[in-house]
């Protein structure tokens, strides 16, 4: 069962406090939901503090560019949490997985 917490944002960005505006900008920059942006941020900090436990499943800049290149540039586009919402045809997902595997991981 997934667990949830409430995050209270500060009015100004500080070393120990974040603003909702900052989260929105990060999510938009990554092309993911705000919830997914929080997960990415937590995982990056975790990986920095505990490198021995790192699971490298975060998209690289090249992978993000490949995904963004497949998203239609229509005004009705929106950010989604799952590639299955973008690639509804299973064959498209298989092709995307195959192309993603060609990128080198750090």
TrEMBL record:
It comes from the Bacteria. This is Uncharacterized protein. The lineage of its organism: Bacteria, Pseudomonadati, Pseudomonadota, Acidithiobacillia, Acidithiobacillales.
């Amino acid at each position: 069962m997934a667990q949830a917490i409430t995050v209270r944002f500060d009015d100004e960005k500080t070393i120990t406090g974040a603003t909702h505006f900052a989260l929105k900008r990060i999510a938009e920059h990554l092309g993911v939901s705000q919830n997914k942006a929080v997960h990415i941020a937590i995982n990056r900090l975790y990986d920095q503090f505990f490198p021995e436990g790192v699971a490298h499943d975060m998209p690289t800049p090249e992978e993000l560019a490949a995904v963004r290149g497949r998203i239609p540039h229509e005004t009705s586009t929106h950010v989604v949490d799952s590639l299955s919402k973008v690639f509804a045809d299973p064959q498209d997902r298989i092709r995307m997985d195959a192309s993603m595997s060609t990128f080198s991981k750090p």
